[in-house]
Amino acid sequence: MIEKISKLNNEFNKSFPEVYLKPSKVNKFLRKYSNEVERKIKKRFLDLDLDKNFVIYANGGFGRKEIFPISDIDISIVEKNKSNNFKNLEEFISYLWDQGYKVGHSVRSISDIKKISKKDIREFTSYLTRRPIISTNEMDNKINYALSKLWSKNNFYNTKFIEQQQRHSKFFSTAFNLEPDLKESPGGLRDFQSALWILQHCFDLRTTGEISKSKIFNSELNDALDAYNFIKSLRFATNIITNHNRLNFEAQVEISKKARLGKRSAKNSVEKMMKKFYEMAAVLSYFNEIVYEKYNEKYPKKNYFQKIKGIHKYGSKIGIENINLRNNKNLIFEIFVEIGKSKTINSIDTKTKSLIRKNINFIDKEFRKNEEYASQFLEILRSKYNLSSILRTMKSLGVMQEYIPEFKSVVGQMQFDLFHTYTVDEHTFKVVRNMRQMKLNKQTGFELEHELINKLPKIEILYVAGLFHDLGKGKGGDHSEIGAKTSKRFAKRLGMSKTDADLISWLVKKHLIMSSISQKKDIGDPNTVNEFASVVESSEKLDYLYLLTINDIRATNPALWNGWKHLLLKDLYLLTRSKINKEPMKASSQISIERQKNVFDSLDTKEEKEFITHHFKNFEDNYFNKNSSSSLLWQSKLILKNKNKEFVIGCKQKFNELIEIFVKVDDSPGLFYKLVNIFDRAGLEIIDASIFTSKDNQFAANTFITKFSRQDRVLNKSELIELSSKIEKNFHAVDQITERRKVKKKNAKFEKIVKIDVSIDINKNRNLITVETVDSSGLLANISKVFFENDVSIYSARINTLGERVEDTFEIENFNKKLVPNYKIKKIISELKKVV
Questions:
Q1: Is the terminal CB of the chain with fewer CB neighbours within 10 Å at N or C?
Q2: How far apart are CA 266 and CA 249, in angstroms?
Q3: Domain span at residue 51?
Q4: Domain harbouring 764, CATH code
Q5: Are residues 656 and 773 in the same domain?
């Protein structure tokens, strides 16, 4: 059988360009798989005389005749008569496994089926949708009768709805992840199958033919079937390549090549294929949505509340009455305005959704120029309730795409920066949703932002900037510059003032600057703050930019946001606000004196104070500017506790998911390189590093912000002590790690990303080198080794991991504490390109 499967896979691969263009052809291959399996099952079942006492059904994908290359073969064997012929049954199941099938089977009586189906809706669904392989009408009827009263329509609907919500939550409730699970993700195959189960049990529509004849969903059904076939074809191809259902980046490249999408680069071919996938996933999501909503709608027979002409409200639903929409185009936006005003109404009825989709062409050039509709759109953005769901519904119905043509072009737009996990449109919605949640809720840790967002003079300015900040992507050129121009035109079209339009345009143009400065520069340096303040100019612009930046980063990748990034941004915001407001700014020397005093005041004895005074005298003011009073006290207590030790280390939890590590040790060439290797081997990722060497160059006092690569949990005190001991033991065990680590790249199928920027910090008389590349194990160790081998000292390091991409910035100086000469910089760049 394995040979036949391999042969069928080869046939599919050869036919894939044809299947891609006409996805319904995938069903031929699915049926071939199923028919071959069924033929063997039937023959063996009959050869062993099992049909005398048992019947057998196909379940799941096998029941639908949709067996994919990695599918399980699900079968249900049901007793006709009491039998002891279990030896033959065991032989039958063993035979199937010997054929190479992954078999999921059950052997039950009708009584057993009734008991388990009453408890488990998945079992009930499996029997509900079974397909007979060898059975009788009598057995079919008995099973149907046993199932008939177990799950009422309402209970089945409610349980399936919860089950679906739980499944969707595993994928952050979006179909627009960049590496989707083709089976389980929202908009995947399971959404279509789930809708069919609801139609079968709750609407009594057992086949697609019956659904089509019912005329309830016939127009949506045809589109959904096309989308279902397309995603099935991608799943078949993905299974062959990866043995999984997740369409990862490598599989996207391979499949787009097989589709032969013209003379395109790998990136452009993937982009085209995935854009179609997201379009099809949206179709399946919409079909699933209206099936579930249709059953849940309770239409009033009379006396429903009607507020304005053409719109009716009932329960949590709102809809457009039977009216000529061409002559009442204002109702398209008005219905969303009404949802935004109501605490109880949160969705549009399915009939109205279909009406808007069918007449989406009414949103034309004249509609977009209309001042009344522009005013309505602004009112929508000022909605008191439901804004996030309103915008998503507008996109689902095509309203957003038609009213904002720039948005249309980014729907399903891939992002190849290796740190976004969503398409441009999905990321955009998550930005606005984050803003909305920040405004409505005092989220833990976001108290300052909650206060700021509720003090904004015009919240719609922030929302429009959020909508447009990435709409310039995929158009060739700097997306910030492109977005700045289009957002300004849109603001003017909405009738916003020139001042407001200019502010929106500025926010879009500068939306990356605050995150860049906080993650690459020393924000404790007054020069950094001064430079940023000169760009921002006013506290109003700073407030808007800060809120846009925070919510943009949080919507990029759930794994990227952490308390450290938040602290850096917040500190930059507060320092810049003080500067702009001309509040007295403390000099570096004053901050240094105050923080040292805070430490001394917290120490118990004169001896302790004298010892730490001697320690502090070894450092310049920047050491105290970079470390807070609490950090300095923690470090001081570690040093006092380990007075006689050459190696002092301490670990403490920071922001729950992060670990701060302090190391005091005799300075030596390649110290940073050695520590990086030790951390790497302990499973730690470095997020930030502050490297300080004493004035006499005798010892170093370094602080690292780290996290474990494969866990996000709070370590207890004993675990932190154990981690400290492990690092100290490894430090003494290794004189110097000299071999170069082998870098294992992620997503090597895409174009190699290596970007190295070099600049000079004139104020500090140091070189800055930023390395941008694909993340990989051993990367930081190899970079630091290049610096070590070129006799260059790392003064500070900002390790910025962005999903599967890194932007690491190093502040370096030559061995003689001067600028690194140009010839050496060129050599370093050349060597860095080889190791990254």
A1: N
A2: 11
A3: 2-151
A4: 3.30.70.260
A5: yes
pLDDT in tens, 138-195: 999 999 999 999 999 999 999 999 999 999 998 877 766 888 999 999 999 999 999 9
Strand partners, 181: 246
- From CA 453, how far away is CA 456, in angstroms rounded? 5
Residue 247 one-letter amino acid: L
First vs last Cα of the chain: how many Å apart?
45
Q: Final residue of a domain: which of 296, 313, 338?
A: 296
Q: Distance between CA atoms of 730 and 149, rounded to whole angstroms?
A: 66
Round to whole Å and give the CA distance between 83 and 50: 10
Which residues are CB-neighbours of 433 under 8 A, at least 6 positions away?
388, 555
Asked if residue 780 and residue 736 are part of one domain, the reply reads: yes
pLDDT at 304: 55
Classify the C-alpha dihedral 32-34-35-37 as positive or negative: positive
Q: What is the pLDDT of residues 570-627, one digit of tens each?
A: 999 999 999 999 888 788 888 899 999 999 999 989 999 999 999 999 998 888 988 9
Q: Does residue 10 belong to any structural domain of this protein?
A: yes
Q: How far apart are CA 391 and CA 786, in angstroms?
A: 50
Q: Which residues contact 809 (CB under 8 A, 6 or more apart)?
A: 519, 520, 521, 768, 769, 770, 771, 797, 798, 800
331 lies in a domain?
Answer: no
Phi-psi region of 243 (alpha: psi -120 to 50; beta: other; left: phi over 0): left
> Are 83 and 164 members of one domain?
no
Closest to 128 (Cα-Cα) out of 112, 108, 114: 114
Task: Tell whether 69 and 183 lie within a shared domain.
Answer: no
671 and 744 both lie in a single domain = yes
Does some domain include residue 618?
yes
DSSP characters over 71-94: --EEEEEEESS---THHHHHHHHH
Shared-domain flag, residues 783 and 734: yes
- Of 95, 121, 151, which marks where a domain is finished? 151
Q: Is 445 in a helix, a strand, or coil?
A: coil
pTM listed for this prediction: 0.84
Per-residue pLDDT at 742 exceeds 60: no
Mean pLDDT of the chain: 90
Domain count along the chain: 3
Residue 297 pLDDT: 83
